[in-house]
Amino acid sequence: MGVKALDYESLNENVKEVQYAVRGELYLRASELQKEGKKIIFTNVGNPHALGQKPLTFPRQVIALCQAPFLLDDPNVGQLFPADAIARARHYLSLTPGGLGAYSDSRGLPGIRKEVAEFIERRDGYSSDPELIFLTDGASKGVMQILNCIIRGQGDGVLVPVPQYPLYSATISLYGGSLVPYYLEESANWGLDVNNLRESVAQARFNGITVRAMVIINPGNPTGQCLSEANLREVLNFCHRENLVLLGDEVYQQNIYQDERPFISSRKVLMDMGQPISKEVQLVSFHTVSKGYWGECGQRGGYFEMTNIPPKTVDEIYKISSISLSPNVPAQIFMGLMVNPPKAGDISYEQYVRESKGILESLRRRARMMTDGFNSCKNVVCNFTEGAMYSFPQIRLPPKAIEASKNAGKVPDVFYCLKLLEATGISTVPGSGFGQKEGVFHLRTTILPAEEDMPEIMSSFKKFNDEFMEQYEAVKI
Amino acid sequence: MGVKALDYESLNENVKEVQYAVRGELYLRASELQKEGKKIIFTNVGNPHALGQKPLTFPRQVIALCQAPFLLDDPNVGQLFPADAIARARHYLSLTPGGLGAYSDSRGLPGIRKEVAEFIERRDGYSSDPELIFLTDGASKGVMQILNCIIRGQGDGVLVPVPQYPLYSATISLYGGSLVPYYLEESANWGLDVNNLRESVAQARFNGITVRAMVIINPGNPTGQCLSEANLREVLNFCHRENLVLLGDEVYQQNIYQDERPFISSRKVLMDMGQPISKEVQLVSFHTVSKGYWGECGQRGGYFEMTNIPPKTVDEIYKISSISLSPNVPAQIFMGLMVNPPKAGDISYEQYVRESKGILESLRRRARMMTDGFNSCKNVVCNFTEGAMYSFPQIRLPPKAIEASKNAGKVPDVFYCLKLLEATGISTVPGSGFGQKEGVFHLRTTILPAEEDMPEIMSSFKKFNDEFMEQYEAVKI
Ligand SMILES: Cc1ncc(COP(=O)(O)O)c(C=O)c1O
Ligand SMILES: Cc1ncc(COP(=O)(O)O)c(C=O)c1O
């Protein structure tokens, strides 16, 4: 018998090309160790509930009622659920004839897309059209769908920040396009320098690549930077000049840990710039229920909003969405709740504010504890996490450590992270998984471990790191 | 400014090539008419809850508790939920550290994959390995993922039944492969004739196409046929000889409306065939929570099981799953509940049986009512719906009707279905959306409208059809 279609040798090469480090070697090893009974601290994925963050109460009450609508007719329902959750459940059920068990329109429920549009309008001060908002099973699926429309083949390039969240590199490989990296400036707090963009595009063109789109992640993953309005304006001008679609990954818009640069959406900046630019730059913005103080990752809810995308293209995207019928309906309702939370005066308002503020303020403290912790370690330098959920320290590996990793057949940062995992149970992602400059090493960890565990984690990290450094520096003497 | 990346002209050609009729022109027109206030009977998608089917109570109780786990600590919980639902919710929560808001492993929760494996073992009498079962956001996403791995380019062909469910044709276009049709035999109750397969493969080879995989839909959509064991054996032998991966779409395995041919899985038949075949044919089988008596379409839960797929390929598929992090967790639990429903003796057992039997028996009656109804119409012939959720009558259009449709710039069956929609509000899918032989016309409707509405629907159909036929035959005289 010859090679079969699902034998490794004969798989789609693009599939094999994909690299996906967040759940790569480190994660697999951590899972193994966990099976063997070792206590693992999973800081490899931004997965807050997995590390003990409690879900917000109100949205869970509403969803529970939507899933079990017969409870609404039960005379005892008021003993378990507040009246505003009951009212909200009735509201969402009225938007979905057939309830949560019915496929919705492939773009998502019209009533919820309307609530998202209203949220965007309140946030940005510019009206938004529900027909240009598609609900998705998490932001990831939306990003994949848009890149699938843009990428026609290897000659098509997408500008992606480096370091970047590997959703982008993986998807570009999967669809057979070319990743065009632009480097974020570690020395400038991971800022985005437009001159780097220009160089990257020039280099790509020289290599025969048509650069068609640019990705920004704001706030950044893994780098945590928040882009300033001025910076966003430069980016939009650049996209305009170079005729690039901008993909604005804004999933961390609620996760801000400093006051100098509050979140501002790419869309608002674009609209503020006025015509002709505001009517010409094609922009797709992504959001999710997985992040913020929601952290509802497992529900898989997201949306994308299209700006300046022609109707015929919107129709094509709609058609592609139809293939898989509809995004999951419960998470669509989570999205509705996220963009339309309890209001002052509602029964559940105070609890909602208390819970969400509690989470956000704790994240802010943890961001600080982690940065400080890393900076107290030998050969480790770390920018402050301005936003998002990650700390991305640079690890200055001594030459002997690099040599040792080569002997072990490992990339140096993988070598370091594996040793860290074995010694401490802390499961991180090596910086090479996100892309980094030659000879510079990082690791990424989330800032999500429980606040009370943080001191112990950081001191166990420090102990490992400082011993590691001593071990490999000692050799020199 | 030149053409932009998201202008229609410059989109990925594969995206533009995709055809997707189930939510195509007819559906869009129906949605418009609905907005204008017309009563529409949506029979275009197998979406039972949207047509009034009530969800099963027990699984919804369990999910509600899993979504709102704080209820489990409430002393009043027993007033709203039976004890077995409470116990089951605790069980599923114990399988997902972090609850429903945490990303799971990208393959799905190990505990639920184990329950699926046990279900398969009970069903088929052969053990199943949880490591070879991946949970997905509905069967659609699984099919897309597997085809993405198989299709390397235009030279790769996939055998697909015609008529077929358009997920397959659409996905093959999207990933740039070639659809190789094999025709089901309408005159043999939509049976699968292996001679047709042989011809199709020979023809494709002649055109330079490497046929790599074959799809069967059993029970069939839109055709409703149930494949016999002997037929499945022929198919597996054929796949073995021709070195094809078999994709077994078995989402309708619970939907059987006759007793001669109960559902039998491709996997069981393969195992029964013994070595070497049972160890050599690569098989991927798909299932879902959307169909059966569950009909939980909006939850988006499914799985695929891999047989004889080498570990390196499984790793690649795992890697691709990782890009979008995890399937939604609530629907994973629905899958757990579907494969592991209440047992005799459980508090909820009787209600569960009553509800599920009620749905299935009513579907069986509706299948009969529809077939009989169609066969009573002028120029309409319809095979009995042996399984699945659809009726697929052949509509013998008079030459003058075909001429009229050409003048209107429509494919004849689209023309007929649009007229039907405008006249009666019945929203169907023209047979051309599923592929059909040249010059033969069909429509597809689901058998899902409420049983009590069925007589009226069928008589309104008959009235429209018979008048239509008279109108266009009259011209001849
Ligand atoms: C930058 C970024 N974009 C997108 C996502 C995807 O989120 P989801 O698919 O859960 O919405 C993540 C998740 O970690 C992320 O970090
Ligand atoms: C034959 C067939 N396969 C797969 C699906 C997809 O189902 P889901 O993605 O909801 O699991 C359907 C839905 O109608 C179907 O008819």
Automatic annotation (TrEMBL), chains A, B:
GO cellular component assignments: peroxisome
Record-stated family: Belongs to the class-I pyridoxal-phosphate-dependent aminotransferase family. Alanine aminotransferase subfamily.
GO molecular function: alanine-glyoxylate transaminase activity; glycine:2-oxoglutarate aminotransferase activity; L-alanine:2-oxoglutarate aminotransferase activity; pyridoxal phosphate binding
Protein known as: Alanine aminotransferase
Classification lineage: Eukaryota, Viridiplantae, Streptophyta, Embryophyta, Tracheophyta
Cofactor: pyridoxal 5'-phosphate
Principal cellular location given in the protein's record: other
Organism expressing this protein natively: Hibiscus syriacus (Rose of Sharon)
Classification via Gene3D superfamilies: 1.10.287.1970, Aspartate Aminotransferase, domain 1 (3.90.1150.10), Type I PLP-dependent aspartate aminotransferase-like (Major domain) (3.40.640.10)
Catalysis: reaction(s): glyoxylate + L-alanine = glycine + pyruvate; glycine + 2-oxoglutarate = glyoxylate + L-glutamate
CDD domains: AAT_like
Classification via SUPFAM superfamilies: PLP-dependent transferases (SSF53383)
